[in-house]
Structure formats: structure tokens, C-alpha cells
# Entry
Amino acid sequence: MTTIKFLKPTLRSIALLIIDAILINLAIYIALLFRFDAHIPAEYVHAFITLSPLFTLSALAFLIGMNLYRRIWEYASIGEMLAIIRATTASIAVALFIIYLFRLHTLPRTVYISGWVMINVLIGASRISWRLLKDKCLIHTKNQASYTLIVGAGDAGAILAREIQSNAGKTSRRSPVQQCHRYS
# Structure
């Protein structure tokens, strides 16, 4: 009998789930603020409060389903951002299907579109920010690094330079110099 491995309840994944739940609701609320120039009518505030659990659970279910809580965000790239976009697109589509199927309170259609954009921006930014923090702040050590010159290695040299730079201070104290361009 095979068992399906669900999300392991680690502290990191629980923290990401909570952060994402907050960001999803914040994105929809910001979309409402933009739509109504910061003066949201009471009927839409009520609709937002009513629909928040639906948007949150739908988005979190698709984010979990796309294994976005198991990925190593230190290596976040375009692939992870595309997975976020696929998950949020599917979650908004499912939420809209449920809203119109059961005739729940609705928000203006522009809020769904701008909310989708804001969800992608906020969740994507939360993921990429860890990589940026690591690359810009946590790599620099107090030890002086010696520079390494890589000559005539083409694409392999670029990969090697990125590897040396991303591991600076971990295994060696070397840093690559700037990439030289060919002169014809």
C-alpha cells in the first residue's frame, strides 16, 4: 500500500502558509481599495469578509498541490514563479466557479483580475525576497576573498563563476572577477 506524502508540518512550511494566507487576503483588499479609491462600499466589505475564506482556502490548496511549500526558495527562479501563477490562476477560477454556481456575494469583476495580479506579485515577492536577501546580505563574510580569473571557458565558465559566487565563504574564499567580453 502506497501512502501519499502530504505537506510535512515543519515550522517553515507553516510559516509560509500563514504568510500566504495573509498575503492572499491583503491582495484582494488592496484590489478593492484600488477599485473604489480607498472608499469601499459596505456591501463589498461584507462580500470580501464572506468570500475571504473561499479565496484563501482555494489558493492555499492549489499552492500546496503545486508543491510550492516543498521547494527550496534559495534557488527560486522563473519556474517557481510560473508555478505560482498557475496555482493562483486555477484558484481564482475555482473560486469564481463556486461564487457563481452557489450565487454567493460577488465583488466587481475588476477586483478579481487585479486581485489575481496582486496575489501573484505579493506571493512571488515573498518567495524571491528570500533569495535576494540570501544573495545580497547573507553571502558577504568578513573574511577577505581572493579573486579568481576564469579565462576562455564559455558557458561553462559562466556557470563556474556563478557557483563560486553563490558559495563564497562556504567552501573557499574565492570570488570571480567580472566577466570579460570578447573583442572581435
Remarks:
- Confidence is low (pLDDT under 50) at residues 1-7.
- The first helix runs from residue 11 to 35.
- The radius of gyration is 22 Å.
- The chain has two domains: 11-138, 146-176.
